[in-house]
TrEMBL record:
The UniProt record lists the keyword Lipid biosynthesis: no
One Pfam family from the record: Cytochrom_C_asm
GO molecular function: heme binding
Principal cellular location given in the protein's record: membrane
Protein name from the UniProt record: C-type cytochrome biogenesis protein CcsB
Domain of life: Bacteria
Gene that encodes the chain: ccsB
Organism expressing this protein natively: Aeromicrobium chenweiae
A GO BP entry: cytochrome complex assembly
Membrane topology: Multi-pass membrane protein
Keyword Oxidoreductase: no
């Protein structure tokens, strides 16, 4: 294949992955909606009250099927998007995250793969709607800043590009899972406080308790924070010294990377020393994620600075 053919294949693959992810999002939403009105401990039963035979579909079974379809589509999207990202790299003859479009595609891929891995480890498929919805938006928005494949600007010619950006993508994927868990924690915690026992029906009551969701959010953030520290405050400055002759210059992206680090450091410190749990911790985690997203979108589009080449 020629370089142009690789680029064309990449464009088709990214567009296809976006559509598949959108379908996965719809399937996850159906999983939640089909379980509406169903008690969390309800068994599969027929309308007349008799136990259901194998293969009989009731709301619980239909909900489970929708969830399985959503996860299968998510895995398919990951494979297709991986092919698209690799083809983009082959067409450009470099690592495929040298501009905002490429970073969006690679970051979405990291988030999806991270989610799939954590589903296997911790069975967190219940955050599927948020992960697939967010990844779909990222891919769609990335298409708006599409640029043809081409060589890197001189400042990016360094192996620190691979180290710095890869670390940012891995930590960003974990931050997304942590943010999704924090959102669901706030919803579940409020429901646990305000919903009488007899009215606790629907998919919300088939996911872990608020306390367990809160613990998951903490674990994911604790994993992501050291990686973000290395990527943003160690690898980034080393790369800046290589590219611009100084380790730190308070460029807007450097400032927002530091702000993100401070917020997440405050989150983890408060949890470890002050015993912060619950609503305050979840809100602080979400603030951290907002600063992370702004760093990679808002700074590039609206602020600029030395990192404006990332457009």
């Amino acid at each position: 294949m020629t370089l142009a053919q690789y680029e064309q294949f990449s464009n088709y693959a990214v567009a296809s992955a976006t559509g598949i992810l959108a379908l996965a999002f719809v399937a996850y939403v159906l999983q939640w909606s089909l379980a509406r009105g169903v008690a969390p401990d309800r068994e599969l039963v027929l309308p007349d009250g008799e136990p259901a035979a194998s293969g009989t579909a009731d709301p619980v079974q239909r909900s489970n099927v929708a969830g399985s379809i959503g996860f299968s589509l998510t895995q398919l999207a990951a494979v297709v998007l991986l092919a698209g990202v690799v083809a983009r790299g082959l067409s450009a003859e470099r690592v495929p995250w040298g501009n905002m479009y490429e970073f969006g595609c690679a970051a979405a891929l990291s988030a999806i793969i991270g989610y799939i891995v954590l589903v296997r480890i911790w069975d967190i498929d219940w955050v599927g709607p948020i992960i697939t919805g967010f990844a779909t938006v990222v891919l769609g928005a990335s298409a708006l800043v599409f640029v043809p494949a081409g060589p890197l600007v001189p400042a990016l010619h360094s192996y620190w590009l691979v180290i710095h950006v890869l670390g940012a993508m891995i930590s960003g994927a974990a931050f997304l899972v942590g943010a999704a868990a924090s959102v669901l924690y706030l919803i579940k915690a409020k429901a646990e406080r305000t919903t009488p026992e007899g009215e606790r029906t629907g998919f919300l009551w088939r996911i872990p308790t608020a306390a367990k969701i809160d613990q998951l959010a903490y674990r994911v953030h604790a994993f992501a924070f050291p990686i973000w520290t290395f990527a943003a405050l160690i690898a980034g400055p080393i790369w800046a010294q290589y590219a611009w002759g100084r380790y730190w210059g308070w460029d807007p992206k450097e400032v927002w990377a530091f702000i993100t680090w401070v917020v997440y450091a405050g989150y983890l410190h408060a949890r470890a020393t002050a015993g912060w749990k619950g609503k305050a911790a979840a809100i602080l985690a979400l603030i951290g994620f907002v600063t992370f997203v702004f760093n990679f979108v808002g700074v590039n589009l609206f602020v600029g600075g030395l990192h404006s080449y990332a457009k």
